[in-house]
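Teaching soon. Got one?

===
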Amino acid sequence: MRRSQFLFLACCSVFLFVGCKNFLTGSLLKSELEESINYANAASYTIKVAPEKADYGQCNVSSITMKNTDQAEISFSLSSGYIFKSWQSSDPEAISFEDKYSLTTTITMIDGHDDIKITPLCVKSLAISSITPAVKIHRPLKILELNRILQ
């Protein structure tokens, strides 16, 4: 009798542990499935990506369609004669930049809505065409003359 009771308890324990594992896996699967359904049903937003002036250079994309929590890589090819400063979003609370000072960066949609624009900020680089010295030297000083003056 004791042996059959022991066998019965052992079988129940095995079924109980197997059932718990399947139960936990099933609830995890259910939550992952619900997250996937919620993401699929979430609203998508189109973000425009363009410099203020076409002369500044070109972005790798002109627009990106994203949902909240999505990430995308954007980059900018700078034209000569300009300096890249940073990336800017028309709504800083909607988009975050991994590195807003890099020509290539990853953006993350935080709180999406329509009419978001991302702009690479640029300035014209300064070029020095010539340098005119303030003092004219008529003849270069020789090292011996310089040593005599300093003594």
Remarks:
- The chain has two helices and eight strands.
- The longest helix spans residues 2-41.
- The two ends are 119 Å apart (CA to CA).
- The longest strand covers residues 116-124.
